[in-house]
Design goal:
Blueprint: H1 3-6, E1 10-14, H2 20-29, E2 44-49, E3 52-62, E4 65-73, H3 82-96, E5 101-106, H4 110-115, E6 119-121, H5 134-139, E7 145-150, H6 160-166, E8 168-170, H7 209-225, H8 241-250, H9 255-259, H10 275-278, E9 285-289, H11 295-304, E10 309-314, H12 317-330, E11 335-339, E12 352-358, H13 367-377, E13 378-391, H14 397-400, H15 403-407, E14 414-415, H16 416-425, E15 428-438, H17 439-446, H18 448-457, H19 462-465, E16 469-478
Parallel strand pairs: 4-5, 9-10, 9-12, 10-11, 12-13, 13-14
Antiparallel strand pairs: 1-2, 1-8, 2-3, 3-4, 5-7, 6-7, 13-16, 15-16
Length: 479
């Protein structure tokens, strides 16, 4: 008998009225308040094991926002990633109901929800419509932490019916493992024991909040590589590669550069043209950090010639595959694409003469570690030229916590002084700013609707952030 036959399937489905007593009993056993659950039954999901309710999650839905509540998993199923799956299903349901922000209150599950993309905020920062919820009014104490998450239909496109049909029908075996957070920590509000891990359940190491952001960025760029969504970092309108070419010309590439590229190498992902200032030379080893489909790698390969070599490092397998296919298409033999993280470059110490990056470092949460890695792989006297995004001052809180702003190269950017302090601390000096323009103005000239939508989700107007987000190109050198 197989494992799937020996244990009933676990599935997520829309809650039925008859499920209310069992669901309420689970909440009460976990020390969580079932108050108001019947009123939000229309937006509730339950976890079933062989027809028996063994978990659930509910939403109180209001105009443009929703409150996630009553997240619970039966003790014998904790540590199997089911709380994470329930949370993601609830976010899809919230998006289908028209919500663009989801809030919650928790006493002891803040770490769990941070790993699912929520950010801790003051109660005043939670959408005002949610203050009318049962959880805010009576069920949760003032000591409960408020958290919110912006959601976007690019990530949560399912309707309620699709959620019921496709969310999860998975066999769970005793040996099942997960890289997700332990689902013993899945209860959204109030109970002091809501995150206590089960002593009998072995769990994998949970993702850190920064790793959740990395996973979202990787997913976004995988979809760009596969042509499922449009690029986000550069000012690229929807359309064919000719639009990408127009953008590349606008940020500093030449027509000769574009003519020399394999088809599909230019995805419109940059915010500058750093390679010209890097000036790769014959015989050099050049590194491109976050090489994408290989645009700057292929241009540098022409400069270093057959005696040189250009290495591209990218964390997204789909981008690596696309770049390698481009190299094979053109028969370019002096390039190599390696899958890896910028915080742990797959290169030897002092093995690179020059390094470049185009609108990628801003996407990495730990930028100081990236700078330290650059200094490690550069040879003494090695050159660095980077195009990136920095801030003149911190972003408004609502924009800073917008996930789409993060993967769109805005919310992950650091304040200028902090950014360059990290560069110097890594031993990179002789810093010179070569280009400095207003990034949102640059993007807004070509993508006005996208910029308006991004700012609108945060309740901002262009004037609120004018001049604050900068696209810069700079050079530095290792001592």
């Amino acid at each position: 008998m197989t494992s799937s036959q020996s244990r009933p399937d676990i599935s997520v489905s829309a809650a039925q009225v008859d499920d209310l007593p069992a669901y309420s009993a689970l909440l009460s056993a976990a020390g969580l308040p079932p108050a108001g659950l019947a009123e939000c039954w229309r937006h509730a999901l339950v976890l079933r094991e062989g027809g028996r309710v063994v978990g659930g999650v509910a939403l109180e839905v209001y105009e443009g926002a929703a409150l996630l509540r009553s997240l619970v998993v039966a003790p014998h199923l904790r540590g199997r990633g089911l709380g994470e799956r329930l949370t993601d299903a609830a976010l899809r349901l919230a998006a289908a109901a028209g919500a663009r922000e989801v809030g919650l209150l928790t006493e002891s599950a803040a770490d769990f929800f941070t790993r699912r993309g929520f950010l801790p905020v003051s109660r005043e920062m939670v959408p005002q419509v949610l203050h009318a919820s049962v959880q805010f009014r009576t069920a949760c104490p003032q000591s409960a932490q408020a958290m919110t998450r912006r959601i976007d239909t690019a990530y949560f496109p399912l309707t309620r019916d699709q959620t019921q049909e496709t969310e999860m029908t998975t066999s769970i075996t005793p040996a099942a493992t997960t890289t997700e957070a332990p689902s013993s920590a899945v209860k959204s509000c109030c109970g002091p024991e809501c995150c206590a891990p089960s002593e009998s359940t072995a769990v994998a190491t949970p993702l850190a909040p920064a790793e959740e952001l990395v996973a979202q960025v990787r997913d976004r760029y995988a979809r760009i590589a596969e042509g499922e969504v449009n690029s986000c970092c550069g000012p690229v309108p929807c359309g064919a590669s000719t639009a990408h070419d127009a953008v590349a010309l606008g940020i500093g590439y030449s027509e000769a550069d574009l003519a020399a590229l394999p088809e599909g190498a230019n995805l419109g992902l940059g915010c500058g043209a750093p390679l010209a200032a890097l000036d790769p030379r014959a015989g050099e080893v050049v590194l491109d950090l976050g090489s994408g489909a290989g645009m700057d790698v292929f241009l540098a390969a022409q400069r270093v010639g057959p005696t040189g070599r250009v290495l591209g490092v990218d964390m997204t397998p789909q981008m690596i595959a696309r770049a390698r296919a481009n190299a094979e298409l053109r028969g370019v033999s002096n390039v190599e694409f390696r899958e890896g993280r910028l915080e742990a470059l797959p290169l030897d110490d002092a093995s690179v003469d020059a390094a470049t990056s185009n609108c990628v470092i801003n996407l990495v949460p730990d930028k100081r570690r990236v700078f330290a890695e650059i200094a490690r792989v550069l040879r003494p006297g090695g050159r660095l030229v980077v195009s990136d995004i920095v801030l003149e001052r911190p972003l408004p809180a609502a924009l800073a916590r917008d996930l789409m702003a993060y993967v769109g190269c805005v919310a992950g950017a650091e304040v200028r002084a902090t950014y360059f302090d990290g560069l110097r601390a890594a031993g990179l000096s002789e810093i010179e700013i070569l280009r400095d323009v207003d990034y949102l103005e640059l993007v807004g000239d070509v993508l006005p609707e996208e910029v308006t939508a991004l700012l609108g989700r945060a309740g901002l107007a262009p004037a609120d952030v004018r001049g604050q987000v900068r696209s810069i190109t700079y050079r530095a050198r290792r001592a």
